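Internal tracking record. Fields below are filled automatically when a chain is submitted to the structure queue. Please do not edit lines marked as system-generated. If the sequence contains nonstandard residues, flag them in the REMARKS field before resubmitting.
Queue: standard
Priority: normal
Entity type: single polypeptide chain
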Amino acid sequence: MNRRFAGHIVAAFVTLLIALAAAFSLTACEAPGWPFAGNAAYQVNAPQWFDPASLPAYSGNPSVEVNGNIPAFTETERRRDAFEEYAELDKLGRCGVAFARIGSETMPTEPRGAIGNVRPSGWQLDKYPWVDQKYLYNRCHLIGWQLAGENDNERNLITGTRSMNTQGMLPYENEIAAYVNGTGNHVLYRVTPVFQGKNLVASGVLMEAESVEDRGAGVQFCVWCYNVEPGVRIDYATGKSEADGTIDEAAADDSDDAAETTATARPTAPAAQAANDIPEELRADETDATFVFNANSRKFHRPGCPSVEDMSARNRLYFGGTREQAIELGYDPCGYCKP
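SYSTEM-GENERATED OUTPUT FOLLOWS
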């Protein structure tokens, strides 16, 4: 009788372990892009008024309005003079809140610097043929470089998908930059990366902005940007990823090859070889490149150089290293932009 009772206990315990393992698997792997589903507790950095678990699951739109699109700034915060603050990294090396009063005085006055030496929490170098520029992850500035001129500030860089960086966050950053450049006014701007539990990759970022002098008449938004990539299942605990089967990888490869064949009048081997010669940690994309290489002429340029626009796409390579590293790789500085 006792042995039978003990057997029941063991069986129940094993069943419980299996259920827990399944729940963990669903949170980390089977709910791509939305680890908050069914688990509203323990959301690191999220302000008390904001519950990510109440937001709609990602359905293709890179961002969604929060709180009626009204930022949650206090009157004390609105009255603050010039400031720029980046939270210390936590024990897991994760970024916290980035908060600043953006104006012409915070914007960059020098060329963009290298950021390839920073490895944000959860950083991986995974590639997928259907992702723009191939690499799944970017080093995403919480406060964009064009607004604050921060380069390799590890407290301002998170592991973000290409889609979140360029489709989610960038349009809002551009809106702020255009307003400041056009009016000379200021914008109160706060970006909060939100992590679930001990995950190393943020599930998304909360972006709040309000123009100061006109009390939000020029710029005002409060949005959530999803840290997701179509066709990719992300394990937010580690940053590892895999194709989720919703995009035909072979077709994407064929489409990419066909596009390259159509666009090129000669073999692309030199450009491909040049890309392979760049160490992975120094590779970048157009949003965070310090220089742009021409694989054909072996010249390197500032990203804003007119020669970059004239450069064939097949020869254009984005580089995230320093001037000295570019020269060591065998590239010469452009004589026009003098990088």
